[in-house]
Amino acid sequence: MPVFQIRPLTPVDCAWVNHVLVTEWGAEIVVVHHETFHPADLPGFAAFVGEEPLGLLTYNISGNECEIVTLNSWHEGLGVGTALIEAARQVAGRAGCGRLFLVTTNNNLYALRFYQKRGFVLSTVRINAIAESRKLKPQIPLMDQDGLPIRDEIELEMLL
Ligand SMILES: CC(C)(COP(=O)(O)OP(=O)(O)OC[C@H]1O[C@@H](n2cnc3c(N)ncnc32)[C@H](O)[C@@H]1OP(=O)(O)O)[C@@H](O)C(=O)NCCC(=O)NCCS
Questions:
Q1: At 1, is the pLDDT very low, low, confident or very high (cuts 50, 70, 90)?
Q2: What's the chain's average pLDDT?
Q3: What is the pTM (predicted TM-score) of this model?
């Protein structure tokens, strides 16, 4: 696999980002901590080799905090996820943010490993938060493919 490039999202990417959201996350919206995001309207970064997309990260800056709203890599183990996180960390730092954070769910054991190995630490656990999210986004399954219940929000942060 040739070296991939990371570039910021532009309005041209909107339809593609929506497609990713529907196929990877069940709907064009993300619901976390009682907030609804439309990632296609958010800034972000994409990883490409030529025209082929390898990964996508979207983020939201609010006040002096930057939240990673979505992260996906379709060629795992090449460093795409790490490079996208690094791009977000740099943009957050340049924007003067004091904190980079994200929310994952209790079942996503691989993500918990991935983020902690990249310097994130657990900051909050919201027990049973997904029941509330499901009211706004019924596409969130009750269980994941391993049969684990999707139940709690786990927030991880990196202080900048
Ligand atoms: C989490 C995710 C973004 C990681 O992306 P990635 O491009 O594989 O990330 P990297 O290549 O930078 O690093 C992945 C790690 O797994 C290893 N890895 C992943 N797939 C591998 C494979 N097939 N073979 C060998 N190693 C692999 C990498 O070596 C690296 O290990 P390390 O953490 O010990 O350094 C990706 O797995 C993903 O999209 N998951 C599904 C969506 C998701 O859960 N997103 C996060 C939601 S909060």
A1: low
A2: 96
A3: 0.95
pLDDT at 113 over 90: yes
Write the burial class of residue 20 (CB in 10 Å: 0-12 exposed, 13-18 middle, 19+ buried).
buried
- Vertex 141 angle, CA 137 and 143, to 5°: 150
Residue 155 backbone dihedrals phi, psi, to 5 degrees: -100, 135
Q: Is the CB of 72 under 6 A from ligand 1?
A: yes
- Check pocket membership of 6 for ligand 1, CB cut-off 6 A: no
CA of 60 to the centre of ligand 1 (A): 22
In angstroms, the first-to-last Cα distance of the chain is 32
Phi then psi for residue 58, to 5 deg, are -120, 150
Q: Give the Cα separation of 157 and 58 in Å (integer).
A: 16
